[in-house]
Amino acid sequence: MGNMKIVPMDAYRWKIPRSGAMRVPGIIYADESLLKDIQKDEALKQVANVASLPGVVKSSLAMPDIHWGYGFPIGGVAAFDCDDGIISPGGVGYDINCGVRLAATFLEEKDISKLREKLADALWQNIPAGMGVSGPVKLTVKEQKKVLARGSEWAVERGYGTASDLEATEDGGRMAGADPDEPGPRAMKRGLKQLGTLGSGNHFLEVGVVDRVFDSRTARAFHLFENQVVIMLHSGSRGFGHQVCDDFLRAMSRRQAKKKEFDLPDRQLACAPVGSAAGLRYYAAMACAANYAWANRQILMSGAGDVFLKTLGISPRDFGMRLVYDVCHNMAKKEDHVVDGKKRRLCVHRKGATRALPPGHEGLCEPYRDFGQPILIPGDMGSGSYVMAGRRRAADETFASACHGAGRALSRNACRKAVRGRAIHRELAEKGVAVRWTGRLTLAEEAPEAYKDISRVAEVVHGSGIAGKVARIRPVIAIKG
């Protein structure tokens, strides 16, 4: 980090004061221990770089799960004025609308304990996972364009889940402004066979048990109770979204080199004015990828529910699966926020961060209006995950944003070296987690120590007041691509 100055604001917030080309300060959400971890890579330098971009508003933010990424840090949040600010593919990321979906059930842990291994096998055999794997839905180009325009609605109309799922999905599972003619031919080709697939890397499907409730009133509103079996999955827009990002990064880099409208501290921050032709084209293509991801998660969760019914031999009535919420990461959204007492239209980039609407916000569906938006924060395979709810302070300080997970503490290469010679699947089994995976290096790269302490991360979010803890989930089955 060199000589970068970091000033404590309180127990959970730290400031990078304006210096050099920075137009706004940087604000880091972390405790002292997490801050030391964060300082081990270049993530805070990236926070300062983002703070130098045109039209940036108020501050460049770092959530407690922040780590080094492409251009923008992962766990970074920044908002840009829609009139004179920019939009950047690096501020969204390659896996556009990578997100997490949580479903509640009527089942308790005792209902699956004797069938845990059988259920793990069935989920592994029926949920396509891994790099480049094909899914159960084969699309024509014409049908794919409908997916890109309509997102989760398209999947529900074809029998994957129910209409009530749309209410419990961010933006109803459909991002406005999508133009199916914007993504390039390679992106379209990659998307034809990957709908309904989990993917690889840190993507997963987990069966968990609610092992602690912190806020019983909000937990009831979210249909959660202690010892309950829940299903959580993490996936995104697959090769389609990756290609959209790659295509527009190249195009914006060429544009930047030609126009030279302003100096970039890092070429990975290639961008264009929000309202420019290039900016509008990227937004329209990004929205297509977002809709693809929502349809993908809708299909995946529906398939997981079918596996439960068949494996356990129970009826849908006894199973009682219902979507708690679907939150997205890796997005740039045009939203209204109050800044210095004035309402402004902003393009909010959340890269490895999630939306966190407070109670009373008009963007919340009616069942959650009095409680705040459900926020899903997955940890590693061995520890667990948190369900939280958005609070007023998020709207005031972070453009209604919170963290999206534990965040990596070790790079994939470092983690492989750290666990060399160990049998991670046996270690997880001793903790009561049945794991299934593909890829020779997957478990080595995704071992529990690869990630920060999820309880510390959740405590920072809770203690800072941007979200409140509702429940904790302990994993019992993990499916990794």
What do these coordinates show?
The two termini are 34 Å apart. The model has no long low-confidence stretch (mean pLDDT 95). 32% of the residues lie in helices and 25% in strands. A hairpin with a 2-residue loop joins β12 and β13. The protein is globular and about 60 Å long. Strands 7, 8, 9, 11, 15, 16, 18 and 19 form an eight-stranded mixed β-sheet that branches. The chain has a seven-stranded mixed β-sheet with strand order 1-2-3-4-5-13-12, with helices on both faces. It has helices spanning 32-38, 43-50, 116-126, 141-150, 152-157, 164-167, 185-191, 216-221, 238-259, 277-312, 316-319, 392-397, 412-418, 424-430, 442-445, 454-464; strands at residues 7-8, 13-16, 26-29, 60-67, 74-81, 86-87, 99-108, 204-213, 228-235, 272-273, 322-328, 331-339, 342-351, 353-355, 374-378, 385-390, 401-403, 434-437, 467-480. It has a single domain (7-480), classed as tRNA-splicing ligase RtcB. It has 481 residues and is an alpha+beta fold.
